[in-house]
Amino acid sequence: METPKDEKFRDSIATVDSEGKRSWVFPKKPSGKFYKYRSYVSYFLLAFLLSAPFIKINGNQFLLFNILERKFNIFSFPFWPQDFYLLVVSMIVGVVFIILFTVIFGRIFCGWICPQTIFLEMVFRKIEYLIEGDRGKQIRLSKQPWNAEKIRKKFLKWFIFFVISFIIANVFLAYLIGGDTVIEYITGNPFDNISTLISLTIFTCVFYFIFAWFREQVCIIACPYGRLQGVLLDNKTINVAYDYKRGEREEGRSKFKKNEDREALGKGDCIDCKQCVVVCPTGIDIRNGTQLECVNCTACIDECDHIMESINLPKGLIRYESEDNIIKKKSFQFTPRMKGYSAVLLILTGILIGMLFLRNDVEANILRLPGQLYQQKENNIISNVYTYKVINKTSEDIKDVSYKLLSHKGTIKLVSNHNFIVPKRGLAEGTLFIELNAAALKSDKDKIEIGVYSGDKLIETTRTNFLGPRSYK
Ligand code: SF4
Ligand code: SF4
């Protein structure tokens, strides 16, 4: 990109003043086409985020990330520690997805989908506008002494912020320990579960701190995705961008004068009204080019479109565009590169969905008891002792479970002596003996296949080793 005339912006960041103190951003209330669409998307995502831990499909919570008990549900598919490989694959797919998506579409995720932006811009900021008014009124309020009006407005805002932070903390906890458990705690005596109460208080304070004070600093200094932009974006990436060719032309930007033919005079279409700056929630000037602080919230697009409309110039001086397209004066095109990347994204997503559907609902393993040798019994019978574990990932109990040998003739004796139940989303463990006639053994370490049955129905097969004496090879 050509070097802008004013280079001062390179020496400082918008949210820190010359003394190193935080410069509070008072963004103007956005309005316009993109803001309207973003609001619709946000309401949908807010409804999803707030309800997902309380929705159940087939008895499974829709989204659950119970790290302590190692239980995970994604779109109601329960995951167990045994499904770790799936988690690893989904993480790889996720990382590739994020990288490719960002290379093509820039930080669209930040502006449209990120919970931080959604809660800050669509919940907390809207409450702030409601109580304190738009930018001008907020600045005046912050400068005025602590009189009755300021105390009333500030405390009302902080109180509402705290209540919403408390609600978010409850929902967050429901993702971690389960929606049912949280509802149980809410309806019961909170002091019966002191540790949960402490976690809830900590989460509430963290959310309050983020949304009432830390705000855009999360995106600027804390978010690792934001820091990655420098290596992921290139001049083909679609971003919220200022068309500096049109905005500056040969003579640069200048104030609006009525009945002036700016194009003929070589003046740019930017009338330097700075409305795109005052509306920006991270306090930057998009006319300085793509910046790490830009969360692609589109507020500056809407604002500049209003200005262009009011002075009868075409909209889109700030728009979704790639650097290349701005230089070549082309409008957005779905290039072969984008098509290729999108195809890879689709394939990866397809693979992951396929793996999710092909995953077993029941998992069984039988392992020889460590340190135990085989036993030689009467009638040439060899016996080995094992521990077994059956995991039921479904939301129904699996009843009347038993084992049968599939590869050899012999018997399996459970120590409990009777068939067992594997509870829903639970497991059954125990000890068993496998007895084979020595004549049936091919080596001193035979691989044997065992079927797991529920009644007469084979629900899973598993393999283990059977040890015998060397002489029977
Ligand atoms: S809102 Fe548009 S016209 Fe006004 S300063 Fe920004 S880019 Fe220039
Ligand atoms: S520069 Fe524009 S898109 Fe980027 S954060 Fe500021 S207002 Fe949002």
From TrEMBL:
GO cellular component, one term: plasma membrane
Residue span, 4Fe-4S ferredoxin-type domain: 261-289
Gene3D superfamilies found in the cross-reference section: 3.30.70.20, Immunoglobulins
Parts of the chain that traverse the membrane: 37-55, 84-110, 158-177, 197-214, 338-358
Keywords: 4Fe-4S, Electron transport, Iron, Iron-sulfur, Membrane, Metal-binding, Transmembrane, Transmembrane helix, Transport
Pfam families: Fer4_18, Fer4_5, FixG_C
GO molecular function: 4 iron, 4 sulfur cluster binding; metal ion binding
Name of the molecule in the record: Cytochrome c oxidase accessory protein CcoG
Natural source organism: Polaribacter haliotis
